[in-house]
Design goal:
By secondary structure, the chain is an alpha+beta fold. Helices cover 44% and strands 13% of the residues.
Length: 283
């Protein structure tokens, strides 16, 4: 860990981020160049004291998860993110395979979308970043570990569907998840992470095996989903998918299809996140 260089890098990157880039109004009395330490702490979900110690070169070695949070808060590019990890004494997130860091430009789009639910996912569906509206709609799925981070595993193995998906949509949702995984497995043929996930699903779920044997293939691009939210009830949303050129990450944007769904989404912004406690972090 190169503490002095890490401290200098973090200070300079913090000063380079405009408050408006992260949805913070600058205000007439603002004197700080870039973000304040308190703002970085809020955006990264850590204490102000730890941000101070990092910038003063007095901290313990930050974890990879903490570095990822800092990179998102400071809107680092891919190269800057790799540099951050090197300075902290960690191997950077892999460039190939399932990307663990949402692209900085996609994260900025999440901020710009404001009250519209949106999230950045990997090509295996792992949530890499979510805006507040997305968390209000379906809960916070960032930072999960192990197979728990993949929606196809939560769906078939953990049964994370009955409470939020209408019965009439469950088979269609199952087929879309499996067909999308088929497409990813073919595109990344031989990748041990994808192959391992498929093999574990085949072993754990007879239902998954049945859909897998149907050999349906379809990349997720456009979908319509209905959510049975515990606080506001049924909402039907159109889901548009925007892919990065390498197809490793996707931006999912969900918009209400009717006035009733829009009204319930607006109500959800008022109610908050009481019904969605933090997801368990599993290994």
């Amino acid at each position: 860990m190169q503490r002095a260089q890490l401290a200098e890098f973090l200070r300079r990157r913090r000063a380079a981020v405009r408050p408006t880039d992260v949805g913070i109004a600058e205000g007439p009395r603002r004197r700080t160049a870039g973000l304040r330490r308190e703002e970085v702490a809020i955006l990264a979900g850590m204490s102000v004291d730890y941000v101070v110690r990092l910038e003063q070169g007095r901290s313990s070695q930050p974890s990879e998860q903490l570095l990822s949070a800092l990179a998102r808060a400071l809107r680092l590019t891919d190269d800057e993110c790799d540099h951050l990890f090197h300075l902290a004494g960690h191997r950077p997130p892999p460039a190939e395979g399932v990307a663990r860091m949402a692209r900085a430009g996609l994260v900025r789009l999440l901020d710009l979308l404001g009250g519209t639910p949106a999230l950045v996912v990997s090509d295996l569906g792992e949530a890499l970043a979510q805006n507040r509206a997305s968390i209000l709609l379906s809960g916070d799925h960032t930072g999960l570990s192990g197979d728990h981070r993949y929606p196809v595993h939560r769906w078939f193995v953990e049964g994370k569907r009955l409470a939020v998906v209408p019965p009439e949509e469950r088979e269609r949702r199952s087929r879309r998840l499996v067909a999308d995984l088929r497409a990813t497995a073919a595109r990344r043929s031989g990748n041990p992470e994808v192959r391992g996930l498929v093999n574990r699903l085949l072993a754990a779920s007879a239902e998954f095996r049945g859909f897998w044997e149907d050999y349906e293939v379809a990349v997720r691009r456009v979908d319509r989903k209905t959510f049975l939210h515990p606080r506001v009830g049924r909402m039907t949303m159109d889901c548009e998918t925007l892919m990065t050129p390498d197809r490793n990450q996707q931006l999912l944007v969900l918009t209400p299809v009717d006035a009733e769904s829009r009204e319930r989404l607006d109500l959800l912004h008022v109610i908050g996140t009481e019904e969605f406690p933090a997801q368990g972090r599993r290994g």
